[in-house]
From TrEMBL:
TM annotation in the entry: 29-48, 55-75
Keyword flag Chaperone: no
GO MF entries: heme binding; iron ion binding; monooxygenase activity; oxidoreductase activity, acting on paired donors, with incorporation or reduction of molecular oxygen
Organism: Thelephora terrestris
Listed cofactors: heme
Biological or metabolic pathway of the protein: Secondary metabolite biosynthesis
Name of protein: High nitrogen upregulated cytochrome P450 monooxygenase 2
Keyword Phosphoprotein: no
Length: 530
């Protein structure tokens, strides 16, 4: 009995210590849970028939009592988040989130939890998801909360921190460079690139007979535009196809970090699984090499990297080369798949809703009645129905469905958010997907695509909100408006025969950016220019 009681007491003590001082890396946890039962095995050697039985008894007792203690506490009324609803499994462990994220369905499950339990749900032992408009400024705003542990999984431990991982002043300093690179003036200077690449896209599509995969061409456009805009050129997917397998590198490279964002403490163990590491490294190398090539060439045009490297010498202290290189991967991940997914989703929803398609076609033909009319960007911003279709797509299918978490820091006391008192050290998610489908904010039929409903709403946050919101919002709208409008001018688009729209939407996976199956369509050229 004595060995049992001693080992059980040490399990409870371990739980107590880690509960009070939650480790964010696995090393102290692994060291403790190995060292404590090993120590007991040595001390109680004389109580058992053999060393092996001592070791088995010590480890089994230690782990069993530790697991029981953790599980009972997380499900008990004494847990600080006990009053928030959720499923038993979500209260018990984050591993359900790992599984759902692996499957790409986590955003759907969280939405289902909100539909069942209301605006605040417990999505992990210490994690809440809040779908309430009051939480947007309180959590994501400038007086909101700092980034949570979720962002730890975005950090490449062998490189400098990229913009998305930074907090506080460090973030504000780097963000200033990005803001310059994506300011209205800079965006004006990137308009030629949009025009050239969109014309090339149309040219490519005109040369494709029969059924084509529209999403793959949108992806080529997005890569080529981003390459020109950020790095002064170099991808050429519209010309050569994806010979460098860039889509695969980006898709595979983000999968692992997305899964471990559920258990960010695993990040530092990633190198133990070489295949995980290889995919993430391939993605990091892609961004790093692209940025490195660009820096070696020097600034020939004022592209995004002209600003990120502070070639205009506007900063008191220029950023280090390591910092500048670390943002290369972020630029590629943030600026390509988001555009591809949104463009594909716009056409998916338009084709599924022929009245909306016709309504948009009428607007396009009214604003640009002649095939030779130039596509003036100012005219595009005045096309209300075009914006309504894009916004409604970003509402029902935000290409980043789950924002990163924020955390109430230890020692700052509880916060009242959306009418509930939330204890310190809670990770909080305020994500677009459940908010955008909440009947309190979008009615009637919040789950349906209805561009006619469109008026700006404070609960519409496809680009997140606050100081860490999407710095590429404006350039994203420019590309989306231009490409959708030009496509509508040049082609009549139809789903390819045999395509199952329900399957397409059901298979959309959250891989940080929403990843969709190919979108097969048939294009019929419209009036040609003289
Ligand atoms: C439809 C298109 C896009 C959508 C829906 C979108 C959405 C978002 C969202 C939700 C975030 C916040 C993620 C978080 O929780 O940390 C974000 C951040 C960011 N986005 Fe976008 N994005 C889009 C296009 C772009 C483009 C074209 C760029 C240009 C390179 C870009 C660059 C960035 C960057 C650099 C960040 C990090 C900002 C920071 O941490 O301060 N995005 N985006």
């Amino acid at each position: 009995m004595r060995p049992f009681l001693c080992i059980a007491a040490s399990s409870l003590f371990t739980h107590y210590i880690f509960n009070r001082h939650e480790p964010i890396t696995p090393q102290p946890v692994l060291a403790t849970i190995f060292a404590v039962p090993t120590l007991w095995s040595i001390l109680f050697l004389s109580h058992f028939a053999s060393p092996l039985s001592t070791i088995l008894f010590s480890f089994a007792t230690y782990f069993f009592v530790l697991a029981l203690s953790i599980a009972s506490y997380r499900l008990s009324p004494f847990h600080p988040l006990a009053s928030f609803p959720g499923t038993t499994i979500s209260k018990l462990t984050k591993w359900w989130g790992v599984w759902e994220t692996y499957e790409g369905r986590h955003y759907i499950r969280v939405h289902e939890l909100h539909k069942k339990h209301g605006p605040i749900v417990r999505v992990g032992p210490n994690e809440l998801s809040i779908a309430d408009v009051a939480a947007i400024p309180a959590v994501l705003g400038s007086t909101g909360l700092p980034k949570g542990h979720w962002y730890g999984s975005r950090q490449d431990l062998r490189a400098s921190k990229n913009l998305q991982v930074l907090n506080g002043d460090a973030h504000a300093n780097r963000r200033r460079l990005w803001n310059r690179g994506l300011s209205s003036d800079s965006i004006e200077s990137y308009s030629d690139i949009i025009e050239t690449r969109a014309a090339q896209l149309i040219d490519c599509l005109e040369r494709q007979p029969g059924k084509i995969c529209l999403s793959s061409f949108f992806s080529r456009f997005a890569f080529d535009f981003l390459g020109d805009m950020a790095f002064g050129g170099g991808f050429e997917l519209l010309r050569d196809g994806d010979t460098q397998h860039l889509n695969e590198i980006v898709d595979n490279g983000v999968i692992v970090s997305n899964i471990i964002s559920q258990i960010p403490w695993v990040t530092s163990l990633m190198h133990l699984v070489p295949s995980w590491c290889n995919d993430a490294l391939a993605l990091r190398d892609l961004g790093y090499n692209k940025a490195n090539e660009r820096l070696s060439r020097g600034s020939i045009v004022k592209d995004l990297y002209y600003h990120l490297a502070d070639d205009g010498r506007l900063e008191r202290q220029s950023p280090s080369v390591a910092d500048v290189l670390s943002d290369g991967t972020l630029a590629i991940v943030a600026g390509t798949d988001t555009i591809k997914t949104t463009l594909s989703a716009v056409f998916y929803h338009l084709l599924l809703n022929p009245t909306c398609y016709q309504h948009l076609q009428d607007e396009v033909d009214r604003v640009f009645p002649n095939p030779d009319d130039p596509m003036d960007f100012n005219k595009l911003t005045e096309m209300e129905y075009l914006d309504a279709c894009i916004n409604e797509t970003l509402r029902v299918m935000p290409s980043v469905p789950t924002n990163g978490s924020r955390r109430i820091p230890r020692g700052h006391g509880p916060r009242t958010i959306a009418g509930s008192v939330i204890p310190e050290e809670t990770e909080i998610f305020v994500s677009p997907y459940p908010l955008h489908r909440d009947p309190r904010y979008f009615s009637p039929e919040p789950e349906s695509f209805l561009p006619e409903r469109w008026v700006q709403s404070p609960s519409f946050i496809p680009f997140s909100y606050g100081p860490h919101n999407c710095v590429g919002r404006q350039i994203a709208y420019r590309q989306l408006r231009y490409v959708v409008c030009l496509m509508m001018r040049r082609f009549t688009v139809q789903f390819a025969s045999g395509f199952c729209p329900r399957e397409w939407i059901e298979k959309a996976c959250d891989r940080l950016v929403l990843s969709t199956d190919p979108l097969p369509v048939v294009l019929d050229p419209r009036k040609k220019s003289a």
